[in-house]
Amino acid sequence: MDSAMDSLRSKFLPVTSILAGIVVIWYVGVFFMNAPFQRDLDRRAGVTSSFSELVAKTMSQPKPTLPAPHQVAQNFFENTFLRKITSNRSLVYHAWVTLSSTLLGFAMGTVLGIVIAVGIVHVTTLDRSLMPWIIASQTIPILAVAPMIIVVLAAVGITGLIPKALISTYLSFFPVAVGMVKGLRSPELMNLDLMHTYNASRAQTFWKLRVPASVPYLFASMKVAVAASLVGAIVGELPTGAVAGIGAKLLAGAYYSQTIDIWSALVAGSVVAALLVVVVGLAGRIVDRAMGGRPV
Amino acid sequence: MTTASPAVVAASKLGLTFQTNDGPVQALADVDLTIGKGEFVSFIGPSGCGKTTLLRVIADLEKPTSGTIAVNGMTPEQAREARAYGYVFQAAALFPWRTIDANVALPLEIMGLPKAEQKERIRRTLELVNLAGFEKKYPWQLSGGMQQRASIARALAFDADLLLMDEPFGALDEIVRDHLNEQLLELWARTNKTICFVTHSIPEAVYLSTRIVVMSPRPGRVTDVIESTLPKERPLDIRETPEFLAIAARVRDGLRAGHSYED
User: Fold this and answer.
1) Is the pLDDT at B4 greater than 60, yes or no?
2) Chain B contact for A191, CB < 8 A?
């Protein structure tokens, strides 16, 4: 516990200084991005602003080119904590919609990735034939594939959660498959020889050696996969004209030039992503400890 | 060696050639060897002399390319399928996610023994290697010597008559090694197993063995077989006796005759 506190303290300072740096640069950026439009407004209204007045105005435009951090923070706070979570203006509501398809897609992607990895490790033909296709699948821009998936599935009557989750699956199976192939092949030759001297069957070697040895690899790749799932769910909401979800919120914000809304939806997305990664990381640590891992 | 009981290991004209990118490498050539029941045979020689390869051939981890070999009167493959031997590797090779008792249980689970018998055997073998009380520890919580003892317990757990040990104490310091050598002799006396032991330490080979097989490289072959005249009861200080030193000198001569000391 002490060491955990120490590592928190040793990380706290560097992380906050970087954050402070970003905020400063952001504010400077806000001025330069919003000043031309503000000057334009002033000119049309026939007002002359002093420099400090101009600075203040660039920080409080209702539809700024680049919203100031405090505007985003205020919007985020209001829409997260002050609204009923059933309201469609609540970020919690939108985050939940996106989260549910993220989790479904992540679960399907993880299962698919594991199944593919098991196949690749055990069947030589699959090793040769499947891997190039899997890699190729990830070079196709998801923005091009997403609308096709949505349209095709809608044509056969599948709408709502499933199409979005499938896009998450598409993005998340890849890191799991690659990580699990590596994990299932991680046992040393000596351990495989040992199983051979016991005349262990392939299934016994798989369950008693390969699977436990692959667990750390599984959690490492699930961390990447869960973040990819969230991106997939958000991307999946864009072409559907979805009415709910973080992607829908981003799209609506872009439609009506509600830049502050866009940014606070973006913050909500990052918070959800961070939470997901932390939860997967924690689960990984609990499992590692249960499997006799040396405490760090 | 003339024994009444059938040979545990019988090799004749045994050869093994590895095909490598740099051409064929003759790891073993013309090995003739018979090991009787209850013997403690050490294989000694410089690296590349094929001593580990020979052990791996007995264990069916490598296939010979010429000659014949029988283990308990069967082919090595049949012997492996009959779980005729326990193998101890250079490293303990314990599974880090299993506690010590679960590691010892591994071969028993694979062989499908009933739970109650597994428990009894784990208790008995851990006692045999002086690891009682460490059942619920994970491997990283044990010292290197204790880990290697746990791996010996794992090889003993299913009660095979033959124990194949590939430099099991090579990675340990000399004090721990002395201690484990003593314990191994005690264990051998108590269990009456046949032990094949690969080492590159002359004192270790002489101290442990009833017979020492001296090997030399390029190609890997047997250059001398030395019968030990030491009594079965061997305290550690037997290593200072003239008898011990005479055998050690013969081993050294055998190695020299096989050009083991040349570059």
Assistant:
1) no
2) yes
CA B230 to CA B42: how far, in whole Å? 14
pLDDT score recorded for residue A23: 93
Residues of A in contact with B95 (CB under 8 A): 191, 208-209, 212
Lowest mean pLDDT among A25-34, B84-93, B175-184: B175-184
Give backbone dihedrals phi and psi of A171, rounded to 5 degrees, phi first.
-85, -30
* pLDDT band at B1; cut points 50, 70, 90: very low
Identify the pLDDT of residue B3.
Answer: 45
Closest residue of A to B62, CA-based? Answer: A193
Does the domain at B1-84+161-263 match CATH 3.40.50.300? Answer given as yes
Nearest CA in chain A to B81: A199
- What residue spans of chain B are helical by DSSP H? 51-58, 76-81, 100-110, 115-128, 144-156, 174-191, 202-208, 242-257
Q: What is the 3-state secondary structure (H, E, C) of B12-66?
A: EEEEEEEEECCEEEEEEEEEEEEECCCCEEEEECCCCCCHHHHHHHHCCCCCCCE
Residues from chain B contacting residue A200 (CB–CB below 8 Å)? 110
B-contacting residues in A 205-234 (Cβ below 8 Å)? 208-209, 212-213, 215
Instruction: Tell me, rounded to whole angstroms, the distance of Cα A196 from its chain centroid.
Output: 42
At residue B257, the 3 state secondary structure works out as helix
Contacts of A49 (CB under 8 A, 6+ apart): A38, A42, A57
Q: What's the whole-model pTM score? A: 0.84
What's the pLDDT tens digit per position in B233-258?
Answer: 888 888 889 988 999 999 998 888 87
As a whole number of angstroms, the distance between CA A110 and CA A170 comes to 10
Chain B hits for A289, Cβ within 8 Å: none
Residue A2 pLDDT greater than 60, yes or no: no
- Cβ-Cβ contacts under 8 Å between A and B: the total is 56
Collect all residues of chain B within an 8 Å Cβ-Cβ radius of residue A209.
Answer: 95
pLDDT tens track for A226-237: 999 999 999 888
Cα(A153)–Cα(B214) distance, rounded to whole angstroms? 73
Q: Return the domain boundaries, chain B.
A: 1-84+161-263, 92-159
Q: How confident is the model at residue B6 (pLDDT cuts 50, 70, 90)?
A: confident
